[in-house]
Amino acid sequence: MVDDSIVVLENIQRRVEGGEPPLLAAYNGSRQVAFAVIATTAVLMAVFVPVVFMEGNLGILFYELAVTICGAVVISSVLALSLTPMMSSKLLNNHAHESWLTHHVDIFFRWLQRGYHEALTKCLRYSWVVASSLVLVMAAIFMLFQQLPSAFAPSEDQGVIFARIAGPEGANLNYMEDQVNAIQETLMDYVDVGEVQNIVTMTPGWGGGGGVNSGMTIISLPSWEDRTKQTSEVMSELNKKWAEIPGVRTFMFMRSGLGRGGGGDPVQFVIGGRSYDELVQWRDLLMERARESGIFTRIDSDFNETKPSLSITVDKIRAADLGLSIQSIGRTLQAMMSESRVTTFASAGEEYDVILQAEEEQRASPDDLTNIYVRSDTSGQLIPLSNVISVENTAGPTSLRRYNRIRSITISAGLVPGAGLDSALAFLENVVATELPEYAQIDYKGESLDLKSSSGGIATIFLLALLVVFLVLAAQFESFVHPLIIMTTVPLAILGALIGLLLTDSSLNIYSNIGLVILVGIASKNGILIVEFANQLRDEGREFGQALIEACDLRLRPVLMTAISTLMGAIPLILATGAGSESRILLGTVIFSGVLMTTITTLFVVPVVYNLIARNTGSPETVSRVLETLQKTESESKPAAEKLA
Known about the structure:
With 645 residues, this protein is α+β, with helices and mostly antiparallel strands.
């Protein structure tokens, strides 16, 4: 937000040091950089124009950011071009006493400026060599995008651990209560020493939506200032303890600040087909390939044929001979074995359901089914079901699921450290494409769906941002060449940001992508300052090469000052702690590393590219002067023509 004021103030101060009166220096200095300030403001606002067309969570998230940044930069530019010149005319003078610190800073800067001048002169001699390095930059960006893992959002330490508990199929409520109590007992040691604040356990799991053999534990840790362990450390310790509890499986996870959840597993891969028998074969193949890949953990599916079941077969011919219909047999089994609500009754102002079901001891084993009698529709006699049915012990799935009205099985899994969600999904997609029939369908849930939905949206935002920025600059500079020169800073900033993510072992996600979009506007600032000042010096009559080198020398200090202010602003984000700090660290890392890289390289690359392709171009002032000349010539020719007539 202070960049515009820095540029204006530095230019005014330079003119004051050159001998101009403060009032005149404030007037001329602010006018001299007004175009650059307006151009940088327009570019930063143009970056977020595509946000208007975004929908869903991405649109909501980016919209709020866009409104905040656009409002701030507009106010910043207005103050820089109004309040800053006014205060400079009153407060600046060329007779102020120079402090020891100021003196030594000026000595250092003059030394730095001489070194930069010499280095720039050498680079301009080998312009094509320096410009060709942009090809290497693009290749490096492509390689880093392939190498960095991708996710929708980072796992954020919000001080809460969620744990799904799964018992064996067929386990009853009493069994699950014993297992959940055993798990809860292991947490008491953490409660006693203050490392766990609250524990919530439930069975069946997650609001009763799970099966009887499921459970859920929510563990709340103390606030950041009251604990020494990160949530991931506590999870690692609990994993070891809970692995020793037999007869139950646990899956711990932290919810991210964004996303749909999906049970905590980042991989939620849905396969759809014509029949469940076929889907089971595909599931087994995909899970086998996933295990062989070495990038997945906790591989599971929501279709497991392990629930103890009874398969009842009715002898339809025998039943017809005895006068028993299939409907009457089914109603009898349902009434005796399930929980059918037959009516309600009211007592003390409350209404209660009446459930019809056999006594527990009368439905404890499969043999109890043979003791059930059904009344014959023809003879009226009670016929034992053992005369018309056969019972077989089998194992089957808990439920038959559909996704988007298609028979489906969902494969869920975690990822080993360093593996990206995008590469994991690409691996499964490749297995489906190469080893399954063409009619096999795939879809996604949870974080996998969020990633797939957002990746295309982020790419669209980024490309549209580049296009809009280019068009805005083209309109301001009245040229297609100058915007192209300025936007050579963008790949340099992206390269720096990706290197920062690589060095910090971070991923590409929604927050780092937001940082990349912001960098498009920030990186263009330095290029605008250099190109605009070089154009002004050429308008004043300087030779092309002299104007370019002088513009770079004069703009070195404001470029470094604005870069330092941006870098200092990103440091608190990088050093963030507390709940949700992961997202702030990512954003700060992208901005810091991107600005650092683009500041160092822009001071050389922009002048080199300008030297190569801008020799035959002019500034907007050149066009204005040509128009004025044409208008003057036209106005002078009219009276002469009238006189001749």
